[in-house]
Amino acid sequence: MNCQHPLITTQQLQAIFDNENLVLLDATIDKIDASLKDEKLELIPHSLFFDTENRASETSSPLPHTLTSVENFSNYIAELGIHKDSIIVVYDRWGVYSSPRAWWTFKVFGFENVFVLDGGLPAWKGNQLPVVDAYIETKKTTPITVQLNKEWIATADNVLQVLEDENVRIVDARSPARFRGKQAEPRPGIRSGHIPNAYNVFFEDILDENFLQSPQKINLIFKAIGDPENDYIFSCGSGITASILALAAYSIGYHSVKVYDGSWSEWGANPDLPIEC
């Protein structure tokens, strides 16, 4: 994998703001228990909306947020005006919540020049930088060829095959209560518990308010469960917060990282798959 650092600061974004290849994407989605839909829309100027839930996900799937097809993604990013020379910066209005999922999605489809704005919109506003209340109009371009990079994605079969592999770390981003089966899952019909031999790193522990924790703190968290040489598969409820862990691990040099796309929404719903509590 390319080892380019995945985070960009507000100062770094300002430095490239006039670059004609910059594509700025607001990748905000609702949380399970919170929404910004009734809030006044505030955006970094020149933003487009990146639709994780409907355009970048397979809406015909019974599972939430699973990746769309290569063809659909190629057509969608052409509608956004994204081309092979684009510098893609994704952010969200929460801080760092859903933007890592957008970052990971572009990585899965072979993009290298994609970055997450650390701190998101709150960091931008915290530096007294201007905001607007509307997205810009898209400038459609010719679809480019994209390919699925399987180094970034895991399936249920992949996970099942490595449950006893000592070189692989399966890491669950859900809360400790959900991980241990002490709290019911928010989605109906999903069992409680976790994937056997999985580790629990609650995604909120990776965050320092609106930002990722410092590299030193992230390193301490991951050192407690493995080394950079291990292979990592990140899971959560539906692939959103697992992407936060993937971003954090990648940012400190853990480059064999995958997100289990179906996550617990798939694993917990299948009675044929083993669980622990």
Which helices and strands appear, and what pairs or packs with what?
Blueprint (H helix, E strand, L loop, with lengths): L6 E2 L1 H6 L6 E5 L20 E3 L20 H10 L7 E5 L7 H10 L5 E4 L2 H7 L26 E2 L1 H6 L6 E5 L3 H4 L19 E2 L6 E2 L2 E2 L2 H9 L7 E5 L5 H11 L5 E4 L2 H5 L10
Parallel strand pairs: 1-5, 2-3, 2-4, 4-5, 6-12, 7-8, 7-11, 11-12
Antiparallel strand pairs: 9-10
Helix pairs in contact: 3-8
Can you name the CATH architecture of the largest domain? 3-Layer(aba) Sandwich
Whole-number average pLDDT?
96
| Main sheet strand line-up | 1-5-4-2-3
The secondary-structure element order is EHEEHEHEHEHEHEEEHEHEH
In CATH terms, the superfamily of the largest domain is Rhodanese-like domain
Helix proportion range: 10-25%
Number of strands: 12
- Termini separation comes to 34 Å
CATH fold-type name of the largest domain: Oxidized Rhodanese, domain 1
Largest sheet: 5 strands, parallel
Structure commentary:
Keywords: Repeat, Transferase. It comes from Weeksella virosa (strain ATCC 43766 / DSM 16922 / JCM 21250 / CCUG 30538 / CDC 9751 / IAM 14551 / NBRC 16016 / NCTC 11634 / CL345/78). This is Sulfurtransferase. InterPro entries: Rhodanese-like_dom (IPR001763), Rhodanese-like_dom_sf (IPR036873), Thiosulphate_STrfase_CS (IPR001307), TST/MPST-like (IPR045078). Pfam families: Rhodanese (PF00581). By secondary structure, the chain is α/β, with parallel strands linked by helices. It has two domains: about 5-145, Oxidized Rhodanese, domain 1 (3-Layer(aba) Sandwich), CATH 3.40.250; about 150-270, Rhodanese-like domain (Oxidized Rhodanese, domain 1, 3-Layer(aba) Sandwich). The protein is about 25% helix and about 15% strand. It contains nine helices and twelve strands. It has helices at about 10-15, 70-80, 100-110, 120-125, 155-160, 175-180, 215-225, 240-250, 265; strands at about 5-10, 20-25, 45-50, 85-90, 115, 155, 170, 200, 205-210, 210, 230-235, 255-260. Strands 1-5-4-2-3 form a five-stranded parallel sheet. Helix 3 crosses helix 8. The radius of gyration is 18 Å and the shape is globular. The two termini are about 35 Å apart. The relative contact order is 0.16.
